[in-house]
Amino acid sequence: MTDNRPVLTMTGISKSFPGVRALHDVNFRLLPGEVHALMGENGAGKSTLIKVLTGVYDTDAGAITLHGEPVSFAGPMQATAAGVSTVYQEVNLCTNLSVAENIFIGREPRLLGAVRWGEVRRRARTLLARLELDLDVSAPLGSYSLAIQQMVAIARAIDIQARVLILDEPTSSLDAGEVAQLFRIMRQLRDEGIAILFVTHFLDQVYEIADRITVLRNGGLVGEYTTTELPQLGLVEKMIGKELDVLEGIEEHSRRDLAAVEEGTPLVAVSNFGRAGAVEPFSLTIHAGEVVGLAGLLGSGRTEVARLLFGADRPDGGQVTVDGRPSSLRTPAQAIDHGVGFCSENRRAEGIVADLSVRENLILAMQAARGWLRPIPRRRQDELVDKYIKALTIRPSDPEVPVRNLSGGNQQKVLLARWLITEPRLLILDEPTRGIDIGAKTEIQKLVTQLSDGGMAVLFISAELEEVLRLSHKVAVMRDRQMVAQLANDDTLDADRVMQTIASGSHGEEADR
Amino acid sequence: MNDTMGRYRAMTGHRLFWPAAVLVVMLAANTIYRPGFLSIELKDGHLYGSPIDILRLSAPLILVALGMTLVISTGGIDLSVGSVCAISGAIACMYISRQPDQDSLPVVLTALAMAMGVSLVLGTWNGVLVAVIGIQPIIATLILMVAGRGLAQLITQGQIITINSDPFRAIGLGHLLTLPLAIFIALAAALLVAAFTRRTALGMIIESVGGNAEASRLAGIRSGRVIFLAYVLSATCAAVAGFMMTANVSSADGNAVGLWVELDAILAVVIGGTSLAGGRFFLSGTILGALIIQTLTTTVYAMNISPQTSLLFKAVVVIAVCLIQAPAFRARFTRRRSSAPPPSPIADKPKEQVPA
């Protein structure tokens, strides 16, 4: 375990895509029995480095050695066979197959060519028991939450006799308990001598688990540090390459005054709004210029509330008024007509259209609202697109690049811009800062403040309480698919009180049901 | 040197390069086999020659494939186009055959209008099954593919209806400005479809729905309407193709008209670079694809390949064309031969263009 020869080295790695230089002359090494955090902003090249390592992409230049031998994987299967296993940021499993099939797909235990299904299920159960997960291994994976799916992906990765385990943002969809469970497993694997490459945006997690840190910025290597020698502030500075005054600017923003925004007719008011199996009926009012935070644990019904308000799912019943007039929000197109916009948390499946260019993705919602017979004139498109690429610093700034070539954070900005172009009156943001770096996070938080100051109402959903408290006028708390409280964000409200509400389901005013 | 390499790569990276190259190679092979293949001569004020024949004969396929391109781009498929061809041809011929003056222009126009009206109903049927009821496109259009043949038989009462109408025959065999009229009809259809999709936002919205249906719905696109429209357009194109096919032979055979044309059309779309999974579509590529398929058919005849082996020959060529088209396949070759990075799989060209 004290063997200091690296199990894996990457030297002089470069990789370009059309219009994007993703990596430039990057060095990286991984020692056995360590947890190594790979840090960087969106578009810094973390995901690309991992994909180069596992053979998803070719390198333009550079060399990789494993156990001192030069290697070049033609694909993830080869990498896995050599002992380099990966769990990607967005779960890459087949939701229609069973849990056990997902764990053993492509390497089922066989007897004379026939799959031994009993053996598959038995080994799957053993493996999941090691992760302290109690699942029905015959049930389709899709019947479990995203968090559980993530754990299954990890189970799949560690079953292969991995010497190197790559975890690309495994914690972005896990709650605190699940993160602790994952970290326990990671420590266990580390002590067995496995080298773990860990990518995350949660700084606290890095300091909790990582032994060393490599920082990338804009496709280049900034440096390699031990966790103890690099304080948290120093790490953030290295990642964004500038002083942290932006962050502090937000911190100093005073508490929002609820009474000032909550007068007059509400922009949107719903009562008895609910959907069986998704969320219990709830009532909520949102005024122009108001930021309503939605807090709660993973799976507490936050996203379901957002989807109902946007018409993505149909409510079972209840009343809706927009500007005091009875209305309905039964389809997204209807909601958009009322000036509602919705950035889904599921960027890849429900957000971007990967085939289309950045420009086309940006104008999509506006064009949909106008109807196909009234195309937005090209000059107007270019103006809008140019404006928002600059305003949100979307990189690369070429609007004709297919949006799939952008990093996750930049795709998120494209989605945000898609709605901002439509000048919505109520913007629903479901986890807009998940899986993106501090710089972009701060930009998005600042933007929310600016938009609400300009009169836009925002429903802000986030797993991070600090963020919700920083931005919201009032906080609606979700627990077990019920809206259990709506708390004014005054001096008495802090993260502890919100957490107590989440835990106990009572505190502050009860929402009328 | 670098500049030449760059230009070479820009050219071969263009998504129309490989289909065009295949077409050129086919024509060249024909010319080597028969040196007079490319010659065109003027006779009685009309141009004649193999290239003109290829253009004329590919016109119906181009029409069908244009509509198919839009349907495939939405993520669907339309298997019923061949039957729609047969039905539209049958109605037109049946109506004309019952009129005392088959050469009268109003009679022919009425016939075309009736057939077009029925085809719109058929397209609506497909559109409702797919976009409103939500049946899988391959199953939904299979219904009309099979039932449509029967319908065509019913209309013609199981007979081959022969007509003698000069205005109708002109759709397939007439001439305009020394060139076959069919070429102009196909060209006009291509320009219309291109204008309809690219001058409006329809094209982008179709691509968006085909690329990611759920994201499109959440962006406020009423995808049902767009998908519906694609099937109606496809039936309309097929109806015009049906007129051409029947006009070529001045008769309507419910069993034979447009038989298997759906498969040729799908192939043309794929050769043209539009993915069967939906998303981006390329009308100019589809037209090149249709020309390749017709050239192949003409080649089989011109080279006197025996009927027993002609299908096999076609299959081999089609496989070769599809492989050459695939960036992943080409990359394997370029990588083996040199250390140069493979050409980018993403076409640089953002906008569709209509070939003149």
Automatic annotation (TrEMBL), chain A:
<dbReference type="GO" id="GO:0005524">
    <property type="term" value="F:ATP binding"/>
</dbReference>
<dbReference type="GO" id="GO:0016887">
    <property type="term" value="F:ATP hydrolysis activity"/>
</dbReference>
<dbReference type="InterPro" id="IPR050107">
    <property type="entry name" value="ABC_carbohydrate_import_ATPase"/>
</dbReference>
<keyword id="KW-0813">Transport</keyword>
<dbReference type="InterPro" id="IPR003439">
    <property type="entry name" value="ABC_transporter-like_ATP-bd"/>
</dbReference>
<dbReference type="InterPro" id="IPR003593">
    <property type="entry name" value="AAA+_ATPase"/>
</dbReference>
<keyword id="KW-0472">Membrane</keyword>
<keyword id="KW-0067">ATP-binding</keyword>
<dbReference type="InterPro" id="IPR027417">
    <property type="entry name" value="P-loop_NTPase"/>
</dbReference>
<dbReference type="InterPro" id="IPR017871">
    <property type="entry name" value="ABC_transporter-like_CS"/>
</dbReference>
<dbReference type="GO" id="GO:0005886">
    <property type="term" value="C:plasma membrane"/>
</dbReference>
<keyword id="KW-1003">Cell membrane</keyword>
<keyword id="KW-0677">Repeat</keyword>
<feature type="domain" description="ABC transporter">
    <location>
        <begin position="8"/>
        <end position="243"/>
    </location>
</feature>
<keyword id="KW-0547">Nucleotide-binding</keyword>
<feature type="domain" description="ABC transporter">
    <location>
        <begin position="253"/>
        <end position="505"/>
    </location>
</feature>
<keyword id="KW-1278">Translocase</keyword>
<dbReference type="Pfam" id="PF00005">
    <property type="entry name" value="ABC_tran"/>
</dbReference>
<protein>
    <submittedName>
        <fullName>Sugar ABC transporter ATP-binding protein</fullName>
    </submittedName>
</protein>
Automatic annotation (TrEMBL), chain B:
<feature type="transmembrane region" description="Helical">
    <location>
        <begin position="172"/>
        <end position="196"/>
    </location>
</feature>
<keyword id="KW-1003">Cell membrane</keyword>
<keyword id="KW-0812">Transmembrane</keyword>
<feature type="transmembrane region" description="Helical">
    <location>
        <begin position="257"/>
        <end position="274"/>
    </location>
</feature>
<protein>
    <submittedName>
        <fullName>Sugar ABC transporter permease</fullName>
    </submittedName>
</protein>
<feature type="transmembrane region" description="Helical">
    <location>
        <begin position="129"/>
        <end position="152"/>
    </location>
</feature>
<feature type="transmembrane region" description="Helical">
    <location>
        <begin position="226"/>
        <end position="245"/>
    </location>
</feature>
<feature type="transmembrane region" description="Helical">
    <location>
        <begin position="54"/>
        <end position="72"/>
    </location>
</feature>
<keyword id="KW-0472">Membrane</keyword>
<feature type="transmembrane region" description="Helical">
    <location>
        <begin position="281"/>
        <end position="305"/>
    </location>
</feature>
<keyword id="KW-1133">Transmembrane helix</keyword>
<feature type="region of interest" description="Disordered">
    <location>
        <begin position="335"/>
        <end position="356"/>
    </location>
</feature>
<feature type="transmembrane region" description="Helical">
    <location>
        <begin position="104"/>
        <end position="122"/>
    </location>
</feature>
<dbReference type="Pfam" id="PF02653">
    <property type="entry name" value="BPD_transp_2"/>
</dbReference>
<feature type="transmembrane region" description="Helical">
    <location>
        <begin position="79"/>
        <end position="98"/>
    </location>
</feature>
<feature type="transmembrane region" description="Helical">
    <location>
        <begin position="16"/>
        <end position="34"/>
    </location>
</feature>
<dbReference type="InterPro" id="IPR001851">
    <property type="entry name" value="ABC_transp_permease"/>
</dbReference>
<feature type="transmembrane region" description="Helical">
    <location>
        <begin position="311"/>
        <end position="329"/>
    </location>
</feature>
<dbReference type="GO" id="GO:0022857">
    <property type="term" value="F:transmembrane transporter activity"/>
</dbReference>
<dbReference type="GO" id="GO:0005886">
    <property type="term" value="C:plasma membrane"/>
</dbReference>
